[in-house]
Amino acid sequence: MASNPETAPQADNPAAPNSVEMPRPTVAPLVLSLGVALLAAGVVLGSTFLAVGAVVLVIGLGIWVAALLPGRGHFHEPRVEPAQRPTPVTTERERVEQLRPGMPGYRVRLPEAVHPISAGVRGGIIGGVAMAISTIPYGIISGHGIWYPVNLLAGTVLPGIGTMTEVQLEQFSLSLLLTGIVIHAIMAVVFGLIYGVLLPTLPGIPGSVAWGGLLMPLLWTGVSWCLMGVVNPMLHEGVNWPWFIISQFIFGVVAAAVVVKAKKLRPVPAGLLGGAVGGLLMALPALLWSVASGFGVWYPVNLLAGLVVPGMSNLPAAELSVFHAGWLVVGMVIHAILSLGFGAVYGLLLARLPAMSGALAWGGLLFPLLWTGCSYSLMGVVNPVLQERVNWPWFILSQFVFGVVAAVVVDRSEKIHIPPAGQGPDRVADFVTGRGEGQP
């Protein structure tokens, strides 16, 4: 803190004044405010309040004006003894450490290099093309045809699409095709620009969290979706996949964080601990969804038990919503085995996996999750019928295809270096040529 040259010499100067001029306390503002309030009340309550308010207003104004007269509104407060007065504040500028790259607080979140606008546009276009290509296998495998996805996309803005049958949505329509292409192109370019602006400013994500908290839950969700479709197709339809994916990511993030923090434990015990904690917390989203949807708390565990208990695929949803002790035990055993098993895998693999770039972790994994959640919620409000017709696992897959491709394109694009401001033209030249800060 720099000292004030005008006041610092007076701090311990015996010849300085022994008193400080201070404003004298007065009730004038309160009296004047009361008069104004009474005048305002008199407009409604009558002339009596008007008269009293005018008198109080004049009195308050008189007191205030009198306090402004010379020698009336101030008094002198004695100062303390010189020995008790504060000493001057001195500075030691030569000891102030300059912020350098890598130090906490350096440039905050302002990057040293950013991507040009063309990088975001290019990433959005290439990611949008890859995303569109990824929807073609879904149309062919599902039997809906290649026009079904684009017609659903056009239905987000065109009225009446929600009332069309699946047969109509599977047919070619030039207007729906053009609308879908325009929507897809605009959204792809906009998100590409967002990637180009945000990715250089975001902090890095630890490799263990990026792999264990983001990528592995995606792989496990895909495997679960495929296996459940083969083992028990009826239960496959009863699972709410967006909530299922949320629970998987909760497990992945928690388990990975526990494994990373448990440095004193060996890999397998640390993984088992992470699996146990993650398994407990991942059950919360499933219970919240089940209660909010009206199925009850037993529905998720009964669905889980249906993976091995025969005959459950033929039961109605009402039967799966009631308590069964046997199904509860089976579901808990399956959940415990899977949680501990995946936790042990985390403990063995996370430390051995290669590092993942921050741009790929954010743009290729986390952003698609956020956008998918927003799309699911908005479509449920704008067009609930289309929300039910969208195949959300394939939708999520297409979002990750876009995110990964766009993030890779943007991350590998050229960068424009931004020198720190306020250092003059010589410092800018040093920054551009790479000679470093403080070098001649």
Structural topology:
Layout: E1 19-23, H1 28-45, H2 47-67, E2 74-78, E3 113-114, H3 117-142, H4 147-154, H5 166-169, H6 174-198, H7 207-231, H8 233-238, H9 241-261, H10 267-293, H11 299-305, H12 317-320, H13 325-349, H14 358-382, H15 384-389, H16 392-411, E4 416-417, H17 424-433
Antiparallel strand pairs: 1-2, 3-4
Helix pairs in contact: 1-2, 3-6, 3-16, 4-6, 6-16, 7-9, 9-10, 9-13, 10-13, 11-13, 14-16
Structural class of the helix and strand makeup?
mainly alpha
Average pLDDT value? 78
Low-confidence stretches: 1-12, 422-432, 435-440
Overall geometry comes to: elongated
Query: What's the number of structural domains?
Result: 3
Q: What proportion of the residues form beta strands (DSSP E)? A: under 5%
Major sheet strand order: 1-2
Description:
- By secondary structure, the protein is mostly helical.
- It folds into 3 domains: 27-70; 117-203 and 364-410, no CATH class; 206-355, no CATH class.
- Helices cover 63% and strands 3% of the residues.
- The protein contains 17 helices and 4 strands.
- The protein has helices at 28-45, 47-67, 117-142, 147-154, 166-169, 174-198, 207-231, 233-238, 241-261, 267-293, 299-305, 317-320, 325-349, 358-382, 384-389, 392-411, 424-433, and strands spanning 19-23, 74-78, 113-114, 416-417.
- A two-stranded antiparallel ribbon has the order 1-2.
- Helix 1 packs antiparallel against helix 2 (47-67) and helix 11 packs across helix 13.
- The longest helix is centred in the middle third of the chain and has 27 residues, at 267-293.
- It is elongated.
- Mean pLDDT is 78; it is low at 1-12, 422-432 and 435-440.
